[in-house]
Amino acid sequence: MAKVKCAWFDFTCCEGCQIEMTNFGAPFLQLLDHVEVVEFREVMKETTDGPIDVAFIEGSFSREADRARLESIRERSSLVVAFGSCATSGGINALKNHMDEAEYKEYVYGADSAMPHLDTQKARPISAAIKVDYEIKGCPMSRDEFIRVVTQLLHGTDKVYLPSYPVCVECKLRETVCRYDEQDHCMGPIAIAGCGAPCPAHGIPCEACRGMVADANQEAMTKVLKEKGGLSEQWAEKKSQMFTANFRSDA
Ligand code: SF4
Ligand code: SF4
Ligand code: SF4
What we know:
By secondary structure, the chain is α/β, with parallel strands linked by helices.
């Protein structure tokens, strides 16, 4: 059977999701039994202008100049999968959507901030520019979820399984001591599961990098972060905004 042609593309991001993929080790090498990698900037120099079975896109859409490249990828690809928080929600890039453009450009680029190639717009998910067939969330995305979704796609499914319950469920299933019992804070009660709750298991709070469940009670979460987690009012609110900046009404 012919291998499935897959290509990886990056837009505005730290490329941490692609790098994470190169750390997958054996599971990624096993994928190569079924997949032909035709473009993947982190691991090879070859590129492609030809047809692609599955395009994996990392990074947010934050420059109008990127629209033509995105449209070309869409036209050439049977399936488009956005992976990582930047690509699926705008991610932490969207924090700039709430700042003055001249101010953040000056902060990052200093005296060079007026150079034309640094022109930018609000950071949006890839779906703001082109049709996306599937999304794999997380900052970076979870190895196990990526492998699971790709395996389902290789088996020809038209509906991949993604959980809709909070991270606390997965945290309890692996019998992790709750961060709140360690005088810490945690966003797990309203964060979307699927990652396997690795952060609390390693003694650090969940930051809801995969976004929030559909019916998230952010008001109650902020109260818990303050009253049980010991955060100030300002920090409790900012915690809820880090990976959801693009969804705030003033974005
Ligand atoms: S989702 Fe996170 S790790 Fe992935 S590219 Fe964006 S900032 Fe980097
Ligand atoms: S550590 Fe976080 S994710 Fe785990 S049970 Fe407590 S609040 Fe939920
Ligand atoms: S535990 Fe929270 S912060 Fe950690 S990977 Fe899962 S959703 Fe992201």
